[in-house]
Amino acid sequence: MTVLPVQPLDPAAPQRRVPYAPGASLLRPYVPLATALRAGTTTPRDVLEQCLATMRRDEPAIAAFVTHDIKAARRAADAATARWRAGAPLSPVDGMPVVVKDMIETIDLPTQMNNPIYAGWSARRDAAAVHALRQGGALILGKTVTTEFACGNSGPTRNPYDTSRTPGGSSSGSAAAVGAGMASLGFGTQTHASTIRPAGYCGAYALKATHGALHVGGVTPLAATLDHLGLIGASLEDVWASAMVISRLVGGTPPHPGISGPMETPAARRPKRLVRLATLGWDETPDTSRAAFEAAVTRIAAAGVEVLDAGGDAEVAALEAALREIGDFANDLLAWESRWPLASYRNHGDGMVGQRIQDLLARAEGMDAARYARAVADRERLRAQVAALSSRTDGFVMLCSSGPAIQDHGFTGSRNYALPWTLVGGPSFALPVLAAEGLPLGLQLAGFADRDADACAVAAWLRDTLLPDA
């Protein structure tokens, strides 16, 4: 059995189940504290100490972290506190406690990717997005557990609301840490479903921006045309402000200039029309989760929004039919594009990579360039179908996952709800506004490529409309 840099799941670890209610969660927002930070009624050091207290209490059960540097975090929090007191914060995220998925380079902490090949390995730089948030004053609290190379063996992390369940993957530790209140923001990645699904499972907000709009320099590559940097946060304001700091300080992945929009979260805007999507996920969604989604759609419609679906609109029906056929070409894209680096890792020895990676490489070895070209063409047709709806709708609503987190730690759950917008390449938000079976159930709002600010405005309206205390 492969020995991993992170310890395997400990059956003797503490167990817990925390009742979940949207709007009364464990999240610890930061950017919404701006008024209190300016007034001095709270400080970045206060927020950090609250996060650390939660870590001391809950990390033994949740196992979100690979490593951390509390002394450095306290120094950074004290420096941010001084800037807020002087009325000169560097940005809205100055002093924000941030955790970093262990696929993303940090100059001061190792980047080990949940694989022994990189055990103890440290980069000599920060990834572009980490660099940007540090420039904006954010503090890096630690590195969080990922699945192996973001596509293979799971780590030990457990769901913060029920430790018998997965936190999702591959951004497991970031989602769990933010969902538990151990940080206000977590860096993730998404190549198929790895930001939106774990955020939904753990009761957190998330943004998977337009492909390329957040700089992926220093993020360990997997599949170039699928890899997205993801942000998992304690509030919509936390993910939006972080995205804008990154965009303004380092831009997007060249040649993308980065997200265009205000530093402040766009004002909530009621959409005129939304499309509800079932995707393949609806077939596997239990009745309790279906009922929660249907109730949300009913409230959206009652607020004056026209909701289109496949039953009443031929263009939506055609899109739904296309979404039922994405699995093969999505896996072909992933397998072909990940040959490097995965084959290079396998060269260290077959036993040094897990079965999921072996399976991806076997799929790639059964492909040729023509098959990959067909997969690219299939994706372009899907994107064209979505773009054709841009004059008819303000966005798309669906679940983040096919029900609450599953009771499994080796499998991180179905990708059927999150995968479509990875392929589309447009922005999607996870909103923790629903619950099923007393557990988080994320609602996903998806938008059109390079209209991230528009999508955020609609996401804010959905949050304000659907959260009980909004």
TrEMBL record:
Report the Pfam families cross-referenced here.
Answer: Amidase
Q: Which Gene3D superfamilies match?
A: Amidase signature (AS) domain
| Record field: compositional bias (Polar residues) | 154-167
Q: What is the top-level taxon of the source organism?
A: Bacteria
Q: Which InterPro entries match?
A: Amidase (IPR000120), Amidase_dom (IPR023631), AS_sf (IPR036928)
MF terms (GO), sorted A to Z: catalytic activity
Region of interest (Disordered), residue spans: 153-173
Give start and end of each Amidase domain. 46-453
What PANTHER family would the database entry show?
GLUTAMYL-TRNA(GLN) AMIDOTRANSFERASE SUBUNIT A, TRANSAMIDASE
Protein name (Swiss-Prot/TrEMBL): Amidase
What organism does the UniProt record list as the source? Falsiroseomonas algicola
Q: What is the lineage of its organism?
A: Bacteria, Pseudomonadati, Pseudomonadota, Alphaproteobacteria, Acetobacterales
